[in-house]
Amino acid sequence: MFTTLNKIISNDNFYNENKEKWGELLKNLGKTEPDDEPLSLSTILESSGIDVALWCLSCIDGYDREIRLLAVEFARGVQHLVKDQTIISALDIVEKYANGLASEQELNSAQSDAKNASIAAKAASADSFAAMSISHTALSNARDAAYYTAWAALNAVATAEDERQSHLLKSSCAEK
Fold this sequence. Notes:
This protein is mostly helical. 73% of the residues lie in helices and 2% in strands.
């Protein structure tokens, strides 16, 4: 899986929310400005960590299925924190969609259901942070932003999950 620094910087979501991490990525790669040199996800992971690698997933073309399934795997790692079956069902639909077993209409419906569950969870209690994170995870994944799923899942489990997920991401990259 490859991208370029120019493609990463053109992703407003990454650059605007991670200017400090962008500077660290350039520094870690020994660069002062973006270029079009192919850059592997493994290199990004090793040089800047999993959070930057996850953000950069959106800048990789041609691996939508793999990225979506990886994001679902991250979310499944914290699924035990989810109390709302709607969120788990949304993850199931995202996984089916990635495997060609669900339609885009089903995916959009799951997104809507997950969004409504997220709003309800937020209104119900501030203690439902984990449920809201996973809800947001399912929603983002359903809208072709699988890297948000992994990022939200990482936030939900904090540092204890970071090592396990890094290993999964490295394994996925090694297979490519």
